[in-house]
Amino acid sequence: xxxxxxxxxxxxxxPQHPLQRNLGFIFDVDGVLCRGEDVIPRAPEAIERLRRxxxxxxxxSNNSTKSRxxxxxxxxxxxxPVTPDDLVLSTYATAQYVAQERPGAKVYMVGxxxxxxxxxLAGLVLVEDPFQAEYVVVGSAFDGTGRIRExxxxxxxxxxxxxxxxxxxxxxxxxxxIFPAKDGVIPGxxxxxxxxxxxxxxxxxxxxxxxxxxxxxxALSRLGLSxxxxxxxxxxxxxxxxxxxxxxxxxxxxxxxxxxxxLHSLGVKPDFAFDSVIDILAWEGG
Amino acid sequence: xxxxxxxxxxxxxxPQHPLQRNLGFIFDVDGVLCRGEDVIPRAPEAIERLRRxxxxxxxxSNNSTKSRxxxxxxxxxxxxPVTPDDLVLSTYATAQYVAQERPGAKVYMVGxxxxxxxxxLAGLVLVEDPFQAEYVVVGSAFDGTGRIRExxxxxxxxxxxxxxxxxxxxxxxxxxxIFPAKDGVIPGxxxxxxxxxxxxxxxxxxxxxxxxxxxxxxALSRLGLSxxxxxxxxxxxxxxxxxxxxxxxxxxxxxxxxxxxxLHSLGVKPDFAFDSVIDILAWEGG
Lengths: 286, 286
What we know:
The structure is a homodimer of 286-residue chains.
Chain A: E1 24-28, E2 34-35, E3 38-39, H1 43-52, E4 56-61, H2 68-78, E5 87-89, H3 90-101, E6 106-110, H4 113-121, E7 125-126, E8 135-138, H5 155-164, E9 169-172, E10 178-179, E11 186-187, H6 190-200, E12 206-207, H7 214-223, E13 230-234, H8 237-246, E14 249-253, H9 260-265, E15 272-274
Parallel strand pairs in A: 1-4, 1-13, 4-5, 6-7, 6-8, 8-9, 9-12, 13-14, 14-15
Antiparallel strand pairs in A: 2-3, 10-11
Helix pairs in contact in A: 3-4, 3-7, 5-6
């Protein structure tokens, strides 16, 4: 890990700008670097200058349907060079969480092919028989139009049976409720969590995505830095809450889905707030 | 209504057995008259003798997928003669509830053809465009194997949009969580309620089936009797709770899914408990 990221040892003495003290930066993606397919102006430049300045940079997203390989193409279109090691999606983070808890565990999955890919890359065994499952892992079961994926039509019942009959553990990629889409809102992973929780009168044993700390802990572990050495940059209360839970520096950007007023009304006060990611570089005087 | 059921005026003076005082009997179906396709021994005889003795009899069920027309065949197979007027299923009761609150309302439905049939029979207008909906009515979206019905694959999102964008009211046929089936449990209406409630952080505006009092109130209104003149006969805590909420006589039968010990452990004490419906007729000395 230490060889993959730049050597930041020289930066361990505090420079002048309090934000510049941070050796690592964890960036949320949607609303911070892009809005859908549109790149936030100068976001690629901001990442490049941070890296050139010796900072370690990593990207996190609650996305529960895509693998890191899927996200490489998205970052290429944005003009931000990345490898899979720079990406901590909730698919990957969930796979890591389960594999650390029980290596090679048998998993019954609700979700998209990107989730299946990451679970298998982590050495977990996907099972189709709910009665064989040690874990149930749930992501979004819906496509971009809001239809249940054809290959998920039986999977809410499968997950129910794995939890009810086989005593499987219940892990959710993220707690996201709804997303805007072309013809109206569409369900997030929360639809599946809600269905199973109501039927079984039981919450998930763990939720990996923000505002949970798990996804951020996995990003920190990849960076090889402690929470006090890193800032989290995001456009939502969930980003700030995950960072605060771990004692990180929190940086809100106004380029995303949530206004600063809304953030404050939720009782969340970030350490810094900027219009856009490029403004983080103010410490360079430009 | 008074002409449809027998004249019970002559019975308004209390006879000796306290249960016999009741002029009307509301029967749950599964676990009381039958177990799946098997008739409970002497259940048809019990119904016949009650009717012959001048009692008004009506049948209620939380079933959210069948119309009353569908249930006629089930009763014919059991050997209990009924007309649709003798049946208060949660499909029918929900349709009555909505039609009484807003006659001719535009309804977006999640559920089976039996629910659609009852909504239309009550003069409600089924809409396919969620943005047109005044009400969302939800029943079970799953088939007997636990797959989401093909014609419901887009309907959880449709219901979400009707509630989120169009401000529709949210009505559930029943709150049932899970049911036993051949290969393991299958989801009840609760899966849909849970998905929508989690996404919207909102409970249904009304739940019609037991243990709610609504379905029983509709049965009482069809009987033309007050709660104090009627007994409810069931095999579950939900039957007893609905009856107690309304001040009815409650009769538990041990022929169904719940043991009397389980019932008591839930803190529910019925007025009477029998092995089977035929034992209700003990007052006749037979």
